Amino acid sequence: MNSRLPTPFRGLRRRLAERAAESDIWEAVELARHDSRPYTLDYADRLVDDWIELHGDRAGTDDHAIVSGVGSFRGRTIAIVGHQKGRDLKERAFRNFGMAQPQGYAKARRVFALADRLGFPIVTMIDTPGAYPGVEAEQGGQAAAIAQSMLAMTRLRVPTVACVIGEGGSGGALAIGVADRVLMLEHSIYSVISPEGCATILWRDVNQRRKAAAAFKPTARFSYELGVVDTVVAEPSGGAHKDVDRAARLLGDAIGQALDSIEAEPVEQRRALRRAKFRRMGVWLEDGVLVGEKEHDLDPAGLPAE
């Protein structure tokens, strides 16, 4: 029936469908950024008993955009590392709006090493617009700090679960996202760049942010379809901020199931599978030929050289 419509009407129908999809994706972006959405410490308070927060990178600084600690989660001692944005303007400034500097990733690596030494599973909670892009961060080696954090995660012997709980922005998210299982809350987003950043680069117009978001589809559904995340975790109707206690229970159930399955894997197999999982991303078929797969820099166990 559609094929009999005049061409202008078919184009109008297609454009209306595109606008509807664009609107749905932007709604997900807004929900992921909602001011009342629960942050890492909100989940830690509800999921972990005997919580002890750990501060500092042991080099003289404590980046407040990254929070970390240990506690008891359903019979296990676990370590948590996550972004923290802040509620009001004063706290947001204190937390640098959840954008970590190199010292924040050094803090994360310190906790990773501690948990690995003591045999504690690690849970990370991702919620950042991206790593801090300021001059001082770049002068401090921001890119190297992110890469070192990612490499540290590939080498961990303990089970690791990463949870995208709000915004998963660029390298700031990936720095603590290289895990055995990656979970993503239903109304969160995960992308290589923010919609505003993409719009500014491609169209030189930040007002094109909705168009940019619709183009790269940062939502949980599309991230799952791409194989970037392993599980989409349901949220209460209207978003996690509508019922934080229930949202925490749902996330806790998903984390528990993930840890159960990971702990059943032998350590060396776990590390090899983790490495292979992320190497598969970016591999595609072109004219029936596999493109993007490189094995020359892997040892037989699939691990980076120590």
Describe this structure in words.
By secondary structure, the chain is of the alpha/beta class. It folds into two domains: 10-264, 2-enoyl-CoA Hydratase, Chain A, domain 1, CATH 3.90.226; 269-306, no CATH class. The chain is 44% helix and 18% strand. It contains twelve helices and ten strands. Strands 1, 2, 3, 4, 5, 6, 7 and 8 form an eight-stranded mixed β-sheet that branches. A two-stranded antiparallel ribbon has the order 9-10. The radius of gyration is 20 Å and the shape is globular. Residues 295-306 have low confidence and may be disordered.
Secondary structure elements and pairings:
Elements: H1 7-32, H2 40-47, E1 49-53, E2 66-73, E3 76-83, H3 89-94, H4 102-118, E4 122-128, H5 135-139, H6 142-154, E5 160-169, H7 170-174, E6 181-185, E7 189-191, H8 195-203, H9 209-216, H10 220-225, E8 231-233, H11 244-263, H12 267-279, E9 284-286, E10 289-291
Helix pairs in contact: 1-9, 2-11, 4-6, 8-9
How would you summarize this macromolecular structure in one to three sentences?
The chain is an alpha/beta fold and 306 residues long.
